[in-house]
Specification:
260 residues, alpha/beta, Rossmann fold, 7-stranded parallel sheet, 3-stranded antiparallel sheet, 10 strands, globular, binds 2-amino-2-deoxy-6-O-phosphono-alpha-D-glucopyranose
């Protein structure tokens, strides 16, 4: 696990966008794992800018969303399918039919989850997965207690997550209780994982998953077992890390050709 500590969200967005650009230039048909939440927005803004101003193309790329609310009507402004469209895929030239998300409105949720796993496999697997982290250490919507080997399935949100996400809805009561999410096993199959986090509110979660034990109670800690996981955070999110100086020093002395 590589921990990169940067000054602010803009720098985080630029570094993650660099890795995505390198991938897409080497492999135009790359499969990107897309996350929602506010943390990845600087990445999407930077990629949209590079598309507009520098001709970075996603015309052959594929995208798979991490998760989705259950029970929101199709086209709901806060459904993650719409959020991903609005924040990223509508702003670049990725083909709409190449962008997928778990189906939270399916009659048969279990079959929809199996189909989603199959679609990821059929596309060749995720090359680069973008992740944020919840205040309780969740990735995707893998709440505390999620099996470290889990696949795409339905989950129940804990109240803290519903409260955290209430800012996107009119009222707390409007936040669904159920979600469909890629499992931790699904996320671990991605070839490269970049988790981004910023702000003091994430400091506990970052400390727990980077330096605490690997445990289902902190889902993101499973990334300690990933062969290529890059954690890109700002100074506030890093403020509780015991080895912060070591991470800074390591990155400062890293040969730039290595990238992340
Ligand atoms: C939601 C999403 C996660 C995201 C988390 C943090 O729960 N399912 O994928 O990482 O929110 O969101 P934010 O980046 O806004 O703090």
């Amino acid at each position: 696990m590589e921990v990169v500590i940067l000054l602010n969200s803009k720098d985080i967005g630029v570094l993650a966008a660099d890795a995505i650009e390198t991938l897409v230039r080497q492999k135009p048909s790359a499969v990107l794992g897309l996350a929602t939440g506010s943390s990845p927005l600087p990445i999407y803004n930077e990629l949209a800018r590079r598309y507009e101003e520098e001709g970075l193309s996603f015309a052959q790329a594929h995208g798979f969303a991490l998760d989705e609310y259950v029970g929101l009507p199709t086209g709901h402004q806060q459904s993650y399918r719409e959020v991903i469209r609005r924040e990223f895929t509508n702003r670049v030239d990725i083909r709409p039919e190449n962008v997928h998300g778990p189906d939270g409105a399916a009659e048969d949720i279990l079959a929809a989850c199996r189909n989603y796993e199959e679609a990821i496999r059929a596309a060749g697997g995720v090359d680069l997965q973008i992740l944020g982290v919840g205040t309780d250490g969740h990735i995707g919507f893998n709440e505390p207690g999620s099996s470290l080997a889990s696949r795409t399935r339905i989950k129940t949100l804990i109240e803290q997550t519903r409260r955290d996400n209430a800012r996107f809805f009119d009222r707390l009561e409007d936040v669904p209780h159920h979600v469909v999410t890629q499992g931790l096993g699904t996320i671990m199959d991605a070839r490269h994982v970049i988790l981004v986090a910023a702000g003091k509110g994430k400091a506990h979660a970052v400390r727990d998953f980077v330096e605490g034990p690997v445990a289902a109670v902190c889902a993101a800690s499973v990334l300690q077992l990933h062969p290529h996981a890059t954690i890109v955070i700002d100074e506030d999110a890093a403020s509780e890390l015991r080895l912060a100086d070591y991470y800074r020093q390591t990155y400062a002395n890293k040969p730039r050709w290595q990238g992340i």
